[in-house]
Amino acid sequence: MADRLPHEKGFHVSWDQIHRDSRALAWRLDGKGPDNGAWRSVVAITRGGMAPAMIVARELDIRTVDTISVKSYDHQSQKDAVVLKAPDAEMMGDGTGVLIVDDLVDTGKTLELVREMYPHAHFATVYAKPQGEPMVDTFITGVSQDTWIFFPWDMAMQYVKPYRGTD
Ligand SMILES: O=P(O)(O)OC[C@H]1O[C@H](OP(=O)(O)OP(=O)(O)O)[C@H](O)[C@@H]1O
Ligand code: HPA
Ligand SMILES: [Mg+2]
User: Where is Mg(2+) bound in this sequence (predicted)?
Assistant: First the structure.
């Protein structure tokens, strides 16, 4: 893993942390929707946005949930973002009242593409790097551009050697 880590810093996020931060995102969005404070639906940007979107939808009691599939990275190298699957067109409308949720914004390329499709939607991420911040309406925690965020679904617990000792 370390041999394909071009970033200077690593920020390792546990399930507990992403759960809490996603809840904080939901609470920040609560009552801010365009229809008397309500949001109509939640759309997760797959795959990373699915866990945060589920938590946001649960906290805000939103039952209409869809996905948009955008692929922009192979491991840690960025390719042009492409939409592989769009959400239901009738449900989306022009995006008004729709919360579009992703785990993070990095360069902003993914959100830029989705924003072009739904300019009136509200874009929310749990984490944000400075370059992508202009693309997101609401986020919880900012991290520096040279930090790679590791999510719990990409990690496993493993043995580490003691600080002093041989095994
Ligand atoms: O702001 P950007 O530079 O576009 O990067 C952010 C996007 O990159 C990652 O997704 P990825 O495309 O790797 O797919 P995944 O969610 O399926 O892991 C992450 O989950 C965001 O969706
Ligand atoms: O920092 C990151 N972590 C995980 N996935 C990502 N996709 C873009 N940037 C990141
Ligand atoms: Mg993603």
Answer: 103
Six token digits for residue 26: 């939901």
Look at residue 1 and tell me whether its pLDDT is greater than 90.
no
57-74 confidence digits (pLDDT tens): 999 999 999 999 987 766
Residues measured by CB to lie within 5 Å of ligand 3, the ion: 48
Indicate the domain borders of the chain: 12-154
**ipTM for this prediction:** 0.99
The vertex-147 CA angle with 146 and 149, nearest 5°, equals 150
- Whether 106 sits among the annotated catalytic residues: the reply is yes
CA of 109 to the centre of ligand 1 (A): 9
CATH architecture of 12-154: 3-Layer(aba) Sandwich (3.40)
Is residue 5 over pLDDT 70?
A: no
User: What residues are designated binding site for xanthine?
Assistant: 106, 149
For 85-120, give one letter per residue: b (16+ CB within 10 A) or e: ebbeeeebeebebbbbbbbbbbbbbbbebbbeebee
Nearest to 65 by CA among 83, 38, 44: 44
Smallest CA-to-CA distance from 16 within 24, 28, 26 is with: 24
List 61, 66, 102, 154, catalytic entry = 102
Catalytic residue among 16, 103, 137, 167: 103
Asked if 35 is an active-site residue, the reply is: no
